[in-house]
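Researcher: For the annotation table, I need structure tokens for PqqA peptide cyclase. Please keep the output clean. Sequence:
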Amino acid sequence: MSDLLEQPKAETKPLSGAGKSYGIPMSVLAEITHRCPLQCPYCSNPVELDRANAELTTDEWKRVISEMADMGVLQIHFSGGEPTARRDLAELIRHATEVGLYSNLITSAVLLTRDRLAELSDAGLSHVQISFQGSEAQLADRVGGYRGGHGKKLEAARWTRELGLPLTINAVMHRQNLHQLPEIIEMAVALDAERLEVANVQYYGWALKNRAALMPTEEQVDWTTQIVEEARERLHGILAIDYVIPDYYALQPKKCMGGWGQQFFNISPSGKVLPCHAAESITGLQFDSIRDHSLAWIWENSPALNLYRGTDWMPEPCRSCALKEEDFGGCRCQAFALTGNASATDPACSFSPFHEKIFRAAKTEAEGSDQFIYRNFKGGTPEANRS
Ligand code: FES
């Protein structure tokens, strides 16, 4: 899921009648559950997960999916947690199809069977994105904390193509698996994927706890960039590859989410409307729920969505920066995680007073321990990590 969020591509349409400078996103991320059988150390879900009994019901999701279509949204990404953990997923996809939405399934794939995938396809599923933790089982299963997971993913990827569904491979990359990138690229080609997302870990929420175990070295980042450039040229017309330099080694911040509350929103399992998947890591913000308001009302009026919209909220050096409408000051979640102030310039920016400090920290942490703190309720060492 993380890479979808790292590199949003949604275009926007004007919000009819509202006269606002922001638009309606063409796509929305629906996190229908936080339940997940994997235990990834870079999990992008909030540190406090929504419990199963707090999740929106089938009828509530169907209502909100209809509201998305009424607003003009075109695509829905069913995500989590692991969205296939919800038994009503086919019913939700069928409803999305009926109201005219293009539906994408963002999945770890370890719970899928061929019959279940065929059921989702029959319901109108348009696209499948499967996450991989490496190019081979030993490392991939250790990272995901799920024995046998890599083999299941390969199987599900083959079923996806057999059923005629387009496939994207999402490879979340960090110091402990970057050396496998050439094999991951070949794996994506062999699986007949049309797109590979080389997704660098983003360090907020749970991933922040594992930063020292995940941070790549500067040499790895340079090498990765070369590998991607060579593969893009060689595989032109065969495999599209998405990749951006990881924040801690960048000079300019990314235009996170296309700007806060401007091109994207996601809905949490319990119905909160968020400007990004990590926004709940910013303490003190209150997010409105679709249980209390319509989606259209929240998109226009939510104080949390309006807080960092546009450029008026910006402090210096963003306020007088010529690039302020290009990057919108970078990522608010990262600014909060690294400075304690969500209004600060993202330290990924070379004009941030914190920039040098985070670059030095990255170099130091890249020499840290490889031990993970897994995303499970014990924070312990799962079977798959023991060797
Ligand atoms: Fe960048 Fe939240 S993840 S603004």
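Researcher: And a one-line annotation?
Model: The two ends are 28 Å apart (CA to CA).
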